[in-house]
Design goal:
The C terminus is likely disordered. The strands form two sheets. Strands 1, 2, 3, 5, 6 and 11 form a six-stranded antiparallel beta sheet that branches. A five-stranded parallel beta sheet has the order 7-8-9-4-10, with helices on both faces. It is α/β, with parallel strands linked by helices. The structure holds adenosine-5'-triphosphate. The site of adenosine-5'-triphosphate has 11 residues, from helix 1. This is Candidate ABC transporter, ATP-binding component. Keywords: ATP-binding, Cell membrane, Membrane, Nucleotide-binding.
Length: 222
Amino acid sequence: MIETRGLRFRYPAGGDLAFADLAVPQGGRLVLRGPSGAGKSTWLALAAGLLTPGAGSIAVAGQPLQALRPAERDRWRGRHLGFLPQKLHLSDALTVQENLALPFYAAGLPVDRAAIARVLDALGVAPLAGRRPQHLSGGQAQRVALARAVLLSPRVLLADEPTASLDDAAADAALRVLDESASRCGATLAVATHDRRVLQAFPGAVVHEIGPGSAVASAAAP
Ligand SMILES: Nc1ncnc2c1ncn2[C@@H]1O[C@H](COP(=O)(O)OP(=O)(O)OP(=O)(O)O)[C@@H](O)[C@H]1O
């Protein structure tokens, strides 16, 4: 589940973002829509525990994030959350396969090379396992980052524009991997997107509009 109440956030240099309350049951699908700059990526970063709200509360997979100290939140994220951010943060110093070993190290688990091979294959990028990310196309790199997000069967999967650089066939594969991964582990899946293909892929999703009337930008501090 993901449940928010009275959630607000303000960047040091920016206006106040206030988000409408929402509740998605565990295992549900959430699509976040809204104009560019409305706050979709910020909402995902709050749900990932990467940003701390200025006010309000957010509970993810039964865990109120405000109850965790920063180090506990990092551990919780490493074990229970899969995140595909807009900026992919793949390391060019490592091969694709080595990048995909990192979530296992971070969670203190043995590296499951068969699982890495399976997910790369499902996304159509298995032949790229030995390459470094700087030698991948944007869409290939996006699929590698998606593989990293789903590898540890997280309880919650967050994806920021997961189909942005993908043609229809690659977008289909990516959405299938997100959907199947979430279904397999009963995870809640939240996707921020402008892409109609995502809504078509998740017909039962809760659709949450972020923008005028739902997320309110104002100059007031929380
Ligand atoms: N690091 C930052 N510092 C200051 N302001 C920021 C920062 N990141 C985002 N913002 C501002 O916060 C608001 C929300 O940004 P956010 O990236 O969450 O929107 P978005 O809906 O995801 O946009 P897009 O669809 O273009 O990705 C915008 O006005 C943006 O300019």
